[in-house]
Amino acid sequence: MSSGGLVWGCCGLPTADDYIQCKKCMKAFHLACLTSSSGSSDLVVPPWICPACTNQLPKGGNGDEIPVGFSPNVTTRPTKRQALESPPGSGPDLASKEDLRCVVQEVVQREIEGLAAKISGSLRLVLNSELKTVSGEIKDMKDSMNFMNTKFEEMLRDQNEAKVIIADLKAENASLTSTVKDLSARLNSIEQNARSKNVEIQCVPEKKNENVIEIVTKISKVINCNVSSENIASCTRIAKLNPGHPRPRSIVAQFSTIQTRDKFMAAVINYNKQKPLHDKLNSANLDIDGPKTPIYVVDHLSPANKALHAAARTAAKQKGYKHVWVRSGRIYMRKSDDSNFILVKDMDTIKNLV
């Protein structure tokens, strides 16, 4: 090759047989200089671009504009990027930055894809395991909910049945209560009728070897009733409700007829009406030793009527009723002398007093 008028871009020696020119800057380069730097003259192929001009090419430039033409003295080889699998030093040392970037991107892309595959596999395994656990828990929860729902329905059914039973029991209880109340009233009436011939004499001093029939006959003489012992069917003292109370036991006298009993009671009432308060029927009238104590003759009441009589007396004090009395086993109340009397049948009558 003629070297006259050339501008050298390598060592600058003016003479050289083998050289090549850059198609961009038209500078000449000795093949020997290029070979010494690259280690092979086969990499220098016309048309050729020097390294300085190569660096100035736009990104993505790969020599596609190089025309097809080459020197007969130089082996022509297509320009290509070094493969990833190539050993070090097998590619050109003058590769562009774009090629290097592509290589790095490809390596990074492969690493990312491999890492993503590993992560995806790991996540798939973890998710499958967790989903199996969650699925099992959901199934157990569903079974529990079904069990609870079944139990709730059973409880609701039992509750409805219990409501029906309770309603029936309430109705039955109301009926039984009414029946018991009616039977109690009947029993009380029977007990009171059994005492229709009886009188109860209270607060008579009690002595040993006393004759209670004689006491009753003495009372009849005092009140001018003249009841003989033949008119008395039975006579005895009854036990006290409170054994420790100092009050003497009452005497219960049963007369032979109701008429005799009513006659005796009327005589007692008339006697007490005729006497002053301090001189009403008392123990001195019967010649009984000891302090003078009043004697009371009242109807012999059944236990239920005794409790009702006591409640009536208490209510009379609380609500201002003036009179409470018993006649023929029945209890009466009157608020004043001019008011109507009230027959006390049961506790409800006392509760409804005004």
UniProtKB/TrEMBL annotation:
SMART domains: PHD (SM00249)
Keyword check for Nucleotide-binding: no
Record flagged with keyword Kinase: no
Region (Disordered): 63-96
GO terms, molecular function: zinc ion binding
Gene3D superfamilies noted in UniProt: L1 transposable element, RRM domain (3.30.70.1820), Zinc/RING finger domain, C3HC4 (zinc finger) (3.30.40.10)
Coiled coil: 166-200
Top-level division of the source organism's lineage: Eukaryota
SUPFAM superfamilies assigned: FYVE/PHD zinc finger
Boundaries of every Zinc finger PHD-type domain copy: 9-54
PANTHER family per the UniProt record, alphabetical: L1 TRANSPOSABLE ELEMENT-RELATED (PTHR11505)
Protein name: Zinc finger PHD-type domain-containing protein
Organism: Loxostege sticticalis (Beet webworm moth)
Native organism taxonomy: Eukaryota, Metazoa, Ecdysozoa, Arthropoda, Hexapoda
